[in-house]
Amino acid sequence: MQPAPRPPMSRAQKLSWYAQQLISDAEAAEKAGDKETATARYLQAAEILLLLSKVEANYATWRDYTDKASLCQRRARLLIAQTPSGPDAHGPPNAALGGSPRS
């Protein structure tokens, strides 16, 4: 994590900096193959960016926040879609219990 910028910083600037850190952490986790952590970080960043966009009066800044939040959400959806789910995701149904699957 990078050090926070020097004071004085507004609350919005601190939150924006933190959201950017979460995005950087998500990218690093994704590169390392940790999709679960990357997804969580992208979603956290998107939530913060959307909260910032609600209180932003400047259109250009509002647009930046919403665009970044949208990209984070899309990236998280992509990672979720790549994660196996359902009964086949963890092997045969009774493999963990040592039994054989029913025919």
Explain what the structure shows.
The protein is an all-alpha fold and 103 residues long. The chain has a single domain, classed as Phosphotransferase system, lactose/cellobiose-type IIA subunit (Methane Monooxygenase Hydroxylase, Chain G, domain 1, Up-down Bundle). Helices cover 64% and strands 0% of the residues. It has three helices and no strands. It has helices at residues 11-31, 35-55, 59-82. α2 (35-55) packs antiparallel against α3. The longest helix is centred in the last third of the chain and has 24 residues, at 59-82. The N and C termini lie far apart (52 Å). The mean pLDDT is 86.
List keywords for this structure.
flat, 3 helices, Methane Monooxygenase Hydroxylase, Chain G, domain 1, 64% helix
Spell out the blueprint of helices and strands.
Blueprint (H helix, E strand, L loop, with lengths): L10 H21 L3 H21 L3 H24 L21
Helix pairs in contact: 1-2, 2-3
Average pLDDT over all residues: 86
For the largest beta-sheet, the strand count, sense and barrel status come to: none
Low-confidence stretches: none
What is Rg?
A: 19 Å
Task: State the share of residues found in helices, binned by percent.
Answer: 55-70%
Number of strands: 0
Provide the number of structural domains: 1
The backbone outline, from C-alpha atoms, is flat
Oligomer: single chain
Name of the top-level CATH class: Mainly Alpha
Q: Structural class of the secondary elements?
A: mainly alpha
What sequence of helices (H) and strands (E) makes up the elements?
HHH
